[in-house]
Amino acid sequence: MKKKHKVTILPFDTIIEVQPRTNLLDAINAANLPLTAVCGGEGTCGECVVQITSGRYHSKPSAALSDEIVSEGYALACQTFVEDDLTVVLPRFEELSIRSVVDHEFFDERRDLISGIYEVDPPVQKIDLQVEAPSLEDNYSDLKRIERALGKSWPSGNISCEYSVLKKMAYAVRKDHGKISIVLARLGGSRFIIDIFPQSEKKSVCGLACDIGTSTVALHLVDLSTGKFLGTASSYNQQMKCGEDIISRINYSQKPGRLEELHDLIIGTINLLIKKASESAGVPPADIYYAAISGNTTMIHLFLNLNPNYIREEPYVPTINQPPVVRSQDLGLDLNPEARVSCTPAVGSYVGGDITSGLLCTPILLDTEKVFLFLDAGTNGELVVGNKEWLMTCACSAGPAFEGSGIKCGMPASEGAIETIKIDDKGRFGYEVINNAKPKGLCGSGLVDLLAELFVHGFVDRNGKFIERTARNKIVQTENGEGLLIVEGPKSFWGNDIVITEKDIANLIRTKGAIYSACSMLLKSAGLKFHEIDSVYIAGGFGQHLDIENSVRIGLLPDIERAKFSYLGNSSLLGAYLMLLTDKNHSIVNKIADQTTYIELNTEPRYMNEFTGALFLPHTEMDLFPSVKKVFDRIR
Ligand code: FES
Q: Could you report the per-residue pLDDT of 502-527, keeping only the tens digit for each?
């Protein structure tokens, strides 16, 4: 029998052994990894493109990829055969760039305008101590003398010490004649010494802020002594191969062994990102002592290996809303084994810690007079309305369209994504691409622009169907039916046309309709009209350049004063960062979670009517969008 070849598939770090000459698409499918193959392996759709970074392979020539791309190792998996050990990258799932915030400007500018506290007093920190040498007269134990030294600068109280620390204590205390550093964790009213070392071992003490999204996972590595960002990394959530939304993940988790599989996949995703961020920052993962994790309730259940089943069944009750602090070694995270891991609390089954932490980045808790609306338009849309005195929330299943999933040429907001689009009076398309790269596809903000521009320039009607008279010169045939050509193949990175199909548009209209109708229902429940909202904060994975005007034109956002809108980016991650900096933010999010009233849309009969009404551009009732009506009347 011939020697098998090892195929390593990134970014999932999955290794599969296959017979020589195995078709690469079959190998990827056998590894149970997600790779779209719309033409069924005919070599015509270009959807199964991969990049092969090492090893020998044979690829049949294909018109779906340009020579330039092929010379960089890109190949169609369905037309490629394994001849060696290979390393294969699935480009759709490769590292995303975090474009929402990469430095402190966000908080420096808003210090007094956010509900969270922006100060560096982390609950896990390094403390340098001088421990007195023992003598016959002072023969207290090492631990007692450490407690005494600590008591000189820190308030007294019970301190526990991990067994792993006790094992190193005698050496650490004597190595530098009593000059030691301890890592002290002060969480939930308890104090623990979680590490000890002689001061001559110059170790940094770092933290990890992490947002676990249903589709993407992003993290910041932070120096806990200064609060500075040291590194960032993000990628698709590897659980995507088990279902794109939370309900399909919950369903998947119900077969034997599947809960553990989902848990391992999210831990694997985070460990990969820890490796990337720590390598780029030159920080060993063992120096990471604290992690603040934010995510929706289902993601947190899967992260903690808790059964999420009852989240989806009436009366929609999770196992826990305010998870306890756990140790990294109990979860399998590649941090210091004694690192503490703290999750942001949830309001309920469908409004999770991603929302409570996101609210830290808004002024919602600073005012009793004004009314704020917070909207997180991820795979699940979550909304909060209120102020310091009252908060109401609800959630809807929006789908991942604005994150680039389920759209033929959709992609996340990373290099090569078209993020803004304009159509001029002559019907010509102009666009901007992230990092000025050759265009690969459309991210959320590009899709919002595209839909709005197609609508106001008469390429699509209010149902989202192509208007023959205007669109006919741009219509091309795709495997998914007719598509409207945005970028011709030779001008795109992949060498394929970038198009939008009617199916894509229907998907986008459903997503925006779900979000708008949930907003509308929430406000009705609070007895408010849209114009009574003073400020709207938008979070989500659209990309940096979400155009508010265009969001209103398609009926995603209400037609109110544009100055009331602000786009926050990934506020769940930003909130997790604030949680790392001081435990005071934990008290604030706990209060938010306790005080927020949750409205269940699943059992609200009026929601379906609202949703149906929102399945048009911009809405069935044009009068709800007077500024869009004006434009529409002028151009038609
Ligand atoms: S599945 Fe390979 S090109 Fe379509």
A: 999 999 999 999 999 999 999 999 99
Spatial CB neighbours of 135, under 8 Å, sequence gap ≥ 6: none
pLDDT at residue 284 in the model = 97
pLDDT at site 101: 47
C-alpha 78 – ligand 1 centre gap (Å): 6
- Check pocket membership of 35 for ligand 1, CB cut-off 6 A: no
By C-alpha distance, which of 137, 189, 201 is closest to 160? 189
d(CA 604, CA 464): 27
Residue that the structure tokens 């694997």 belong to: 268
Domains of the chain with bracketed CATH:
5-93 (3.10.20.30), 105-117+206-353 (3.30.420.480), 124-198 (3.10.20.880), 362-400+509-635 (3.30.420.40), 404-499 (no CATH)
Segment holding 211, helix H or strand E: strand 206-212
- Sites in the chain below the pLDDT cut of 50: 97-102
Q: Is residue 146 within 6 Å of ligand 1 at its C-beta?
A: no
How confident is the model at residue 96, as a pLDDT? 57
**Which residue's CA is the nearest one to ligand 1's atom 3?**
43
Tell me the per-residue pLDDT of 166-207, one tens digit each, with 9 for 90 and over: 999 999 999 999 999 999 999 877 889 999 999 999 899 999
pLDDT number for residue 543: 63
Residue 28 in contact with ligand 1 by CB distance below 6 A: no
Ligand 1 atom at minimum distance from 76 CA = 2
Beta carbon of 475 within 6 Å of any ligand 1 atom: no
Q: Which of 291, 274, 212, 214 is nearest to 247 (CA)?
A: 214
